[in-house]
């Protein structure tokens, strides 16, 4: 006899994070996890250090000051904000609170992997809707909605494709869903989006009790190590999240760093400006090589390779690794023909372009 988990748990393929090392290479260029190349705000680091003096104290379980700061910064009602240990925790809490065996959790074909993992962890059934041109398709999502559907997850912009739906399409999706189905808008990359037809979802949350917006400090704010995210939800959904979350789910250093990071507008603007410069630059370089890459609204690029042996995504990954560059393989997302590359510092981004050019010329080795 061995302990046996509930149905669904052993169907989970464990999430494989981006690599951070290559055997035999001392210095690597890690572009596998969409981390900010500029790192955190020095003010956030200082706030974290200061908070370390009180590590014997439990954190504020209600994250009051952080929710106030978020409310002020984004013009939102702090009472509707629930903080989490990364948006990953909030995804898991939503699924735990609203779905179980026999229920369905819907997302689009190349959507973020955590949606399916969270669904399986509660015994719910993950359901994928097809995409059109690597972009979520509202009609395809709606066609998969059944009486069993409890939550629809939409990452907008989506990771790993970088594609993005305009506010009008997200509104159309929200308007067509039954009121008892949660629409979770995962806006992890919202701060990078430059399109003027984009909206992260706060107004929809205020208009509809079933819409939730998820945000994170892991991407543009460069605080992935601290695990800090937040949800903006209706009072009924915020109440549910507050019941199911741990009483001290967000650490004190994370809360302090989050407040300081929000206040450092210049640092955030610098991260955005860096991305605005180097993301289009890398895409142009990739297109010049005859490779394809969808326009990305995030801080990463999905690069697609031909199926030709020796010229495919696996070969490209091995070639980049030899040059110390770590992209993300995409097999887990049903995109085994692609690699995802985060926009790094200037020299890192140039190194990617140089390495890809050498790979496409058929060079072998650095
Ligand atoms: C990175 C990412 C997250 C997770 O962020 P954390 O706050 O670090 O848990 C959530 N959703 C998407 C789409 C992401 O790419």
Could you give a quick summary of the protein structure above?
The chain is of the alpha/beta class. Helices cover 37% and strands 14% of the residues.
List the helices and strands and how they pair.
Elements lengths: L28 E2 L11 H10 L12 H11 L6 E4 L1 H13 L5 E5 L5 H8 L3 E5 L8 H6 L5 E7 L11 H10 L5 E5 L15 H6 L3 E6 L12 E4 L2 H10 L7 H12 L1 H24 L11 E5 L8 H10 L2 E2 L1 E2 L8 E5 L3 H16 L5
Bound molecules: pyridoxal-5'-phosphate.
The site of pyridoxal-5'-phosphate has 13 residues, from α3.
Radius of gyration: 21 Å
Write the CATH fold name of the largest domain: Aspartate Aminotransferase, domain 2
CATH superfamily annotation of the largest domain: Type I PLP-dependent aspartate aminotransferase-like (Major domain)
The overall average pLDDT, rounded, is: 96
- Name the CATH architecture of the largest domain: 3-Layer(aba) Sandwich
Q: State the secondary-structure class.
A: alpha/beta
* Order of strands across the main sheet: 2-8-7-6-5-3-4
Report the bound ligands by name, code or SMILES.
pyridoxal-5'-phosphate
Largest sheet: 7 strands, mixed
Strand content: 5-15%
The count of DSSP E runs of length 2 or more, i.e. the number of strands, is 12
Question: How many individual helices?
Answer: 12
CATH class call of the largest domain? Alpha Beta
Number of domains: 2
> How far is the N terminus from the C terminus?
53 Å
Work out the helicity level. 25-40%
Low-confidence stretches: none
């Amino acid at each position: 006899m061995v302990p046996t988990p509930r149905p669904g748990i052993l169907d989970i393929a464990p999430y494989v994070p981006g690599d951070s090392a290559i055997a035999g290479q001392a210095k690597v260029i890690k572009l596998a996890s969409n981390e900010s190349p500029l790192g955190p705000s020095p003010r956030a680091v200082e706030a974290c250090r200061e908070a370390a003096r009180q590590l014997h104290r439990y954190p504020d379980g209600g994250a009051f000051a952080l929710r106030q700061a978020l409310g002020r910064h984004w013009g939102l009602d702090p009472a509707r904000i629930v903080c989490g240990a990364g948006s990953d925790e909030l995804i898991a809490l939503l699924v735990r609170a609203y779905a179980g065996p026999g229920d369905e959790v819907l997302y689009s074909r190349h959507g973020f992997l955590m949606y399916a993992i969270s669904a399986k962890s509660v015994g719910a059934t993950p359901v994928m809707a097809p995409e059109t041109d690597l972009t979520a398709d509202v009609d395809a999502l709606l066609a998969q909605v059944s009486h069993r559907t409890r939550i629809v997850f939409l990452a907008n912009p989506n990771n790993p494709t970088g594609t993005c739906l305009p506010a009008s399409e997200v509104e159309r999706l929200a308007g067509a869903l039954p009121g008892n189905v949660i629409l979770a808008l995962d806006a992890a990359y919202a701060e990078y989006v430059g399109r003027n037809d984009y909206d992260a979802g706060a107004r929809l949350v205020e208009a509809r009790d079933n819409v939730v917006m998820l945000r994170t400090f892991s991407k543009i704010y460069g605080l992935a190590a601290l695990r800090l995210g937040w949800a903006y939800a209706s009072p009924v959904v915020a109440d549910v999240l507050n019941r199911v979350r741990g009483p001290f789910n967000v650490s004190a250093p994370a809360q302090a760093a989050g407040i300081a990071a929000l206040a450092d507008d210049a640092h955030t603007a610098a991260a955005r400006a860096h991305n605005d410069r180097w993301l289009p630059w890398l895409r142009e370089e990739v297109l010049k090589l005859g490779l394809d890459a969808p326009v990305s609204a995030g801080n990463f690029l999905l690069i697609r390779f031909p199926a030709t042996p020796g010229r495919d995504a696996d070969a490209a990954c091995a070639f980049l690794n030899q040059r110390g560059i770590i992209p993300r393989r995409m097999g887990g997302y049903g995109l085994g023909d692609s690699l995802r590359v985060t926009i790094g510092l200037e020299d890192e981004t140039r190194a990617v372009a140089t390495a890809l050019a050498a790979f496409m010329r058929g060079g072998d080795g650095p």
